[in-house]
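Render FAD synthase in 3D.
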Amino acid sequence: MLAASVRVSHHLREFDSHFAFGLTSGLTSSAILLFPPIWPRNPTSNFPSISHRSQPRRVSFFCSIVPSTSSGEIPVLSDCFGSREDDREVSVAGGIVALGKFDALHVGHRELAIQASMVGSPFLLSFVGIAEVLGWEPRAPIVAQCDRKRVLSSWAPYCQNSAPSEYQIQFSSVRYLTPREFVEKLSKELRVCGVVAGESYRFGYKAAGDAAELVKLCEEYGISAYIIKSVMDRNQKVLNSANSKERGQVSSTRVRHALSIGDMKYVSELLGRRHRLILMEKGLEGFSNTNSRVSAPRSCLLNLSPKEGFYNNCFLCTTDENLIPCRVAIDSTHVHIEMDDIGTIHLVGTQDCVNIEFGDGV
C-alpha cells in the first residue's frame, strides 16, 4: 500500500503527460489511489473583452528580440519569462512542481497546475535544450516564449488565484540521470515539497522510470507525489501518430495537427483559450496610422501559425487586453491583417510585437 501522502484524483480531468527524459509514454500502476479534490470550476473567462471604442489603442507588447539572420527562420528570443536553473532570484524550494514538457500549455497541462496549486505553491518544471541535445530539427513553438507568462496568469482563476511559475532545467544537465538520481535532485538540490505528474509520465535516462516508480522514490525521499489521469480529447479525432501510447488524450501533437488543418475551434478547445499568433512589429509592411491593411513576412512570426488561408473571425490585441476585430490572410510568404477602422488602434514601438487571436470561425 502506498503512503497516505500519495494522492491522486480521478475527478481531475485527464491530461497528456507522456513526457520524460526519453520523451516516451508508459503505464500507471494499479496501486495508485484516487481521491477527489475540490476547487472552483467556474473561473472568470479567459477571453478578454472585444473593444469597438473609437479612441486610439496602443498595441505594444513585451518581447526582446534578436533578429534572425535568415528570412525563413524563426527569430531567436532572449530570455523574457520564467526562470532558469541558475536564476537564483526564483526558487522552487518548498513548492509543488508539475513535471512535463509544457510546449503548448494546453488544458492537460493546466490540470497539472490545478493539482499543484491545491497542495502548495505551483510550478511547472520542464527541460530546455532538448532539441539541440537530441539533434531534432528546430520548429516553431506553439506558444511564443514572450507570451507564456500571460497564459500562465490566465490560469490563476483555476489555480486558487495563484498563477503558476515556470522553472526550467537544461536538459543536458539531467539527460543521464537515473530515476533515483533525478528524484534525489528534486529533493536535495531543488528542495521541492511535492511533485505532480500524469499517469503516463516517464523519467530518467532512456525513460527508465514510470509513474509508479516516481511515487515510490518520492516516498523514500520524503516528497509527496500526485499522479493524475489524462485529459481526453472530447472530439476523439484520430491522428496518424507514430506514438504507440496515443490513446486520444489532449496533447501538443493534437494542437499542432489542429493548427495544420486550420480548425481554430478545435485549437481553442485543446488550449482552453484562443490561439494567439505573435509577430515582430518592425517587420510590418505598409504600416501607417491610416492604412487599414498591413502585412508581415512569415519570418516575423514568433510562434506557429494556422495553415494558409483566410480567417475572418480574428482580433488584434491591445495593451489593455481589449480585442479589435480584424481579418487575417496567411499565404506561403506573408501574414496579412485587415481592420475595418484603423483609427481604433495605434501600433507603436520598434521592438514590440503585434498579437493576433483567432476566433472559432473561418
